[in-house]
Amino acid sequence: MPLDIVRGAQMSFDMSGTAIQRVSGLIQIDFSIGNEYQVNYPLNLGSLITQTGTLTADDQNGNGGISAGETIDHDNTNIPILDTIPDLSNATVLGVGYMGGIVSGLVVRYPVILVASGSIQYLIYPEGPPDLLTQITGTVNTTLHFYANAQYYPGGGVPCFAGGTRIRTRRGEIAVEALRVGDSVLTVDDGYQPIRWIGSRHLSSGDLAMSPQLRPIRIRSGALGAGVPEVDLVVSPQHRVLVQAAVAERMFGEAEVLVAAKHLLALDGVEIAEAMAGVTYWHILFDGHQLVFSGGAVTESLYSGSEALKSVSAAARDEIFALFPQLAAGVRPSPARPLVPGRQAARLAERIALNGKALVR
């Protein structure tokens, strides 16, 4: 779901591929007995309608996510006779969570947002869900899970390190959470470079359950090559890792490329860190995009492209724009290495896994 966050409190994103359905009756969310509310919901697959147009969310708390109590507007550009979902104006977000169920024998879990427009409620599935939409008719039993203080973060989250990751600096190997602005970090291309900005965001167990696409990726020691990384490395799904492999040069004409951790799951020793109850993500920004040494592996610093900037909070964007005014004007830096897009990255990992080759020299 392409997302364009406008600087300030408004977030706008393309609805293409998003599904919406009108709720039959009303869902009354009650957190009086705990932080999670579950309700069984018979899902009529035929009532899911793929959307077009634009949805704008009022990010009142400035955290870069969609939260209960905030409002949204939906400008639906579908042909009305084919789409019974109306435009939504100032609809209230009642709850954020996920839908879980079994469809065609597959366990599925998709983020879901419950909104109310007047007396009518709607369920918004911001990431599809493609597996459900392949079935035109029928009803399946699902469970809706809503969490107090949960948010949906469009765009998949920002590339960052999990707390505890050790970064190579002039002072030695330092845990990322102990780094400070001005610390000199060893980079692959430009020697020691000072950190210009540090940001962090904590995701609770509820946040991760509601948005499983944000669960960290664990790269086991030695998974990328002999002794690489030196210790288990935990990063966000979007965090890119340096790949140096002959197959990369054959596929892309580049000896070194950057691949998001989530696209390396085909490799032995790379896995979703399901057991983590929560995680604090840390991102470090330099004057330019850099490659740094993290746990003995080479990974990226924060790349201040559009995807990263739209995934941080409004306050964080303001801080970054104050340091780098050119970013506010739409100027984007050059990446340290070519960035391989999703499908090609997954294919690269599959080929490397099939050949049994290391990702790094």
Automatic annotation (TrEMBL):
Residues 158-274 form the Hint domain. Pfam families: Hint_2 (PF13403). InterPro entries: Hedgehog/Intein_dom, Hint_dom_N, Hint_dom_sf, Intein_N. GO terms for biological process: intein-mediated protein splicing. This is Hint domain-containing protein. It comes from Paenirhodobacter ferrireducens.
